[in-house]
C-alpha cells in the first residue's frame, strides 16, 4: 500500500493499538513524538518508521513545519492519525494547511474542537433532541438558582477543554458537595484560564456508562458501529475505562447514529452515554473524536476502525458492518485496573470476589500481545524506573 500512516503519539497504548491495527495489514506505519521517553508503543514490531518532532504546543509553528515538510517529501499523501486530544486540537487548528499534505477524515477546520467543547456539545445535543445532564454555566443569569433547582448537590464541574484541565489538575473534573466547594472549583479553573460547566451527576454505578463506537463515511453516513459497557474506570466513578466489555445495546445506535449524522461528523467517533439508574434513560456525556482506549477491543470484536479510515481515505470501498450480538470480550488495562479495583474494594463499591471473578473472561489487553510482546516489556521497565524514582526521592 503506497500511502503511509502517520501516528501522532506513542507514549500511550492508543497509539500502540493503531500501529498494530494498520501494521498487521501491511501498511507502512510512522510514529511521530516530541520525545523518546516512555514511548513504549514505538517498540512494536509493526512500526516501520519513527521520528522525533518539535512539541505540538511549546513549538507549535516548528511542529507544523515538520509535518508539512514530511508530507511534502512523500510520493502520496499519508493518512494522519492523532492518538491524544492535544494532537487532535493541534491538527484542528491547522486543518486547512495540513489537508494539502495529509489525508484526514474531518474536512471542516475547528469542528473537532467544537465537539470536544462540553458547553457547545451540550447545545448541539439539546438542538437535536438528545438527552444531556442538566447544565449550568458560571456567570449566566440565575446561575445559583439553576444549580440549586435543576442540578443539585453533589454536582460536577467539567472543563470545556479536557486535555488542558487534566494537565493542570490531574483529574477529569471536580466533584462538589456545597456552594462553597463549587465556588472554589470554579475559581481554580478560572485561575488556570479554563472554562467550565456545572452538571448534574447522572445516578448509577460505573457500569451504567456505555459507548457507541461508530465510523461515519465521507458521505456523512454511519457505516460501522458497535456498543460497549464500562465496568470499571480509573480514577473510580469519574475516570477513563480500565475494564469494559462489548455489549450490544440497540438503543444507543438509535440515539447516536442520527446525532452524528445530523451534526456533520466524519470519521471515527465514540459517543459516551450514562444510563440514569432512576429512569433508565441514556444521557450523552461526551464525544471522543479520536481513536480511543477501546480500540483494541473494537478490533478484536470484528471492526478495525483505523483500517476503515485508511481504506476509505485512500480510495477503497469499506462497505458496512455492525456487531449486533454480545461477544463476551472485555478490554483490560491491567495496570490501572488493579489500582481501580483496589479503590472500588476500599470504598465497598465492589467486593474482592466480584473483581476476581470478572477476570475469567476472554480479554483484549491494552498492551500485552503474544504476537508483539516488546511494548509490554518496555512498559514494565518504565513502571520499574518510576518505582525506583519514588523510592529514592
Descriptive notes:
- With 393 residues, the chain is α/β, with parallel strands linked by helices.
- 38% of the residues lie in helices and 21% in strands.
- It is globular and about 60 Å long.
- It contains 15 helices and 16 strands.
- It folds into 3 domains: 5-104, 3-Layer(aba) Sandwich (Rossmann fold), CATH 3.40.50; 134-200, ATP-grasp fold, A domain (Dna Ligase, domain 1); 206-361, ATP-grasp fold, B domain (D-amino Acid Aminotransferase, Chain A, domain 1), CATH 3.30.470.20.
- The strands form 3 sheets. Strands 9, 10, 11, 12, 13, 14, 15 and 16 form an 8-stranded mixed β-sheet that branches.
- The chain has helices at residues 13-23, 60-73, 85-93, 95-98, 111-116, 118-127, 143-151, 162-169, 179-191, 250-262, 295-300, 305-313, 334-346, 352-358, 374-392; strands at 5-8, 29-33, 49-52, 79-82, 135-136, 155-159, 174-176, 196-200, 209-216, 222-234, 240-246, 267-275, 282-288, 321-322, 330-332, 363-365.
- Strand 9 and strand 10 (222-234) form a beta hairpin.
Our estimate of the beta-strand percent is 15-25%
CATH topology of the largest domain: D-amino Acid Aminotransferase, Chain A, domain 1
CA-CA gap between termini:
49 Å
Specify the CATH architecture of the largest domain: 2-Layer Sandwich
Helical amount among residues, as a percent range? Answer: 25-40%
Class by alpha and beta content = alpha/beta
Q: Give the CATH H-level superfamily of the largest domain.
A: ATP-grasp fold, B domain
Amino acid at each position: 500500500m503506497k500511502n503511509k500512516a502517520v501516528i501522532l503519539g506513542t507514549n500511550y497504548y492508543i497509539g500502540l493499538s493503531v500501529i498494530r491495527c494498520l501494521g498487521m495489514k501491511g501498511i507502512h506505519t510512522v510514529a511521530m513524538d516530541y520525545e523518546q521517553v516512555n514511548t513504549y508503543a514505538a517498540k512494536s514490531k509493526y512500526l516501520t518508521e519513527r521520528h522525533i518532532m518539535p512539541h505540538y504546543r511549546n513549538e507549535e509553528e516548528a511542529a507544523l513545519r515538520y509535518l508539512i515538510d514530511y508530507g511534502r517529501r512523500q510520493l502520496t499523501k499519508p493518512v494522519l492519525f492523532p492518538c491524544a486530544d492535544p494532537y487532535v486540537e493541534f491538527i484542528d487548528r491547522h486543518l486547512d494547511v495540513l489537508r494539502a499534505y495529509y489525508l484526514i477524515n474531518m474536512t471542516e477546520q475547528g469542528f473537532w474542537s467544537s465537539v470536544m467543547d462540553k458547553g457547545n456539545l451540550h447545545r448541539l445535543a439539546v438542538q437535536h433532541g438528545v438527552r444531556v445532564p442538566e447544565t449550568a454555566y458560571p456567570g449566566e443569569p440565575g446561575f445559583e438558582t439553576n444549580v440549586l433547582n435543576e442540578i443539585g448537590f453533589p454536582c460536577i464541574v467539567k472543563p470545556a477543554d479536557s486535555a488542558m484541565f487534566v494537565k493542570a489538575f490531574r483529574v477529569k473534573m471536580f466533584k462538589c458537595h456545597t456552594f462553597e466547594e463549587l465556588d472554589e472549583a470554579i475559581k481554580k479553573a478560572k485561575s488556570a484560564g479554563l472554562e467550565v460547566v456545572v452538571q448534574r451527576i447522572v445516578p448509577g454505578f460505573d457500569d451504567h456508562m456505555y459507548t457507541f463506537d461508530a465510523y461515519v463515511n465521507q458521505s456523512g453516513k454511519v457505516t460501522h458501529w458497535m456498543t460497549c459497557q464500562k465496568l470499571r474506570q480509573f480514577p473510580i466513578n469519574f475516570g477513563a475505562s480500565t475494564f469494559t466489555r462489548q455489549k450490544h445495546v440497540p438503543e444507543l445506535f438509535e440515539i447516536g447514529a442520527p446525532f452524528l449524522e445530523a451534526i456533520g461528523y466524519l470519521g471515527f467517533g465514540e459517543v459516551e452515554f450514562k444510563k440514569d439508574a432512576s429512569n433508565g434513560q441514556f444521557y450523552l456525556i461526551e464525544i471522543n473524536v479520536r481513536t480511543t482506549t477501546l480500540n483494541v477491543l473494537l478490533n478484536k470484536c470484528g471492526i478495525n476502525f483505523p483500517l476503515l479510515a485508511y481504506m476509505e481515505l485512500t480510495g477503497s470501498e469499506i462497505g458496512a458492518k455492525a456487531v449486533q450480538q454480545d461477544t463476551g470480550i472485555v478490554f483490560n488495562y491491567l495496570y490501572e485496573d488493579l489500582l481501580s479495583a483496589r479503590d472500588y474494594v476500599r470504598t465497598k463499591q465492589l467486593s474482592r470476589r466480584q473483581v476476581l471473578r470478572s477476570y475469567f473472561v476472554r480479554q483484549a489487553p491494552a498492551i500485552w500481545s503474544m504476537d508483539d510482546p516488546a511494548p509490554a516489556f518496555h512498559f514494565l521497565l518504565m513502571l520499574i524506573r518510576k518505582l525506583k524514582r519514588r523510592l529514592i526521592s
